[in-house]
């Protein structure tokens, strides 16, 4: 074999190896690209939808510590965000594969997607109420751990080190950031604690004194010949004053202790301003809109999206042809069954769909 023939053989071998590597890379890309698109689209749509839910809470003045309304709105918001994430993932994946969008959306599938998202949101450590904005006068959406505060005094160096550890792990309890200087935030704030302490000194004797003085003034007005309307004015004022005393007394009767929560200097400055102004600022000024933070429960939206993932055949002649789907369920969709993890998703989805199917059957039987 001469040198020219050896050179040609070497070049041919290299070309074949390059073509083989290119074909192999194309096959892998053909499989991974839809999967990555599905994962990215579902996660992004889920978190953006949660920001929208937070905006609704901000508009209506619902904070993460608002009783009843916060967990209910958070529950509905996470469920809706999960359904949106599944639809976004399915459409993005089909666009990458060059396939047309599927037919109409079935309510049954939306409920299943919402149930999956809600389940994994809780499994990953999420709390429904924390979807809403934080309140500067209460523990925030990222308030997980705290330490006992010795009154209104500043924290000690040992407490500061513990707060710094919490700050680097959980972030600012108000906005969630892990950057900047850590501040020991009193909760409830010192001003609120002072008002409660002052209100705790009120007793039933204060109410009796207010009503007694009002009755004396009313009687004096009648004796001096004034009309009933003028005589009733002291009683009306006394009633209004009592209505201000009673809630404060009830609030002060609750035992409370101040605790330190890790807080960033930005949120601490905002808190100082609104607490100093108090009732002079609108209620929304006490709310803090927290952006998307890298937390485990932020990945909950990926699971409803992956349920709609459709794998493709890894063959040179394969066009983007689905090999299996985690779950078929939209009108006009092919009914190919998935394999491996897809079968697990299929069983989970079918288990969630059974109550809905029974409900539809019962409705059909009554009609």
TrEMBL record:
The chain crosses the membrane at residues 39-62, 68-90. Residues 315-334 are annotated as: Disordered. Keywords: Membrane, Transmembrane, Transmembrane helix. This is Uncharacterized protein.
